[in-house]
Fold this sequence. Notes:
By secondary structure, this protein is of the alpha+beta class. The protein has helices spanning 2-13, 17-21, 37-50, 116-122, and strands at residues 24-30, 55-64, 67-77, 91-103, 106-112. It has one domain (2-122): Roll (Nuclear Transport Factor 2, Chain: A). The chain contains 4 helices and 5 strands; from the N terminus they run ααβαββββα. The protein has a 5-stranded mixed sheet with strand order 1-5-4-3-2. A hairpin with a 2-residue loop joins β4 and β5. The termini are far apart. The model has no long low-confidence stretch (mean pLDDT 95).
Amino acid sequence: MHAWYADYLDACNRHDLADIRSFVASTVRRSHLPGGVDAWVDDLADLFRGFPDWRWRRIQLVVEDDRIAAHVRGSGTHLGEYRGVAPTRRHVNIAEFSMYRVAKGRFTEFAGADTGFELMSQLGVAGV
């Protein structure tokens, strides 16, 4: 599954939404987020519009049975509107920690730390 996850991360770093979709089950469950592959892809499309140079770098990956624990760093420059915030041209860099369940070559469950607060804080958004 290490190589499979590397392929997924590569699709993400290429911003290839069609390829990303092929890694995610249509009924994927996401803790604290809307479920389903469409919501997953829409969230990434929103991120890529706001940060057209967004990239992830794998720090650590642990695989056990059908589970993946991933620590990645995401970074990019805020050049487009993101969640109602006009472009700031600020570069952000955040740590992400995620747990996944994989079945039949697709993500079926996701749980992870909410990085929205850290990202918006780095953009200088007050009151987050």
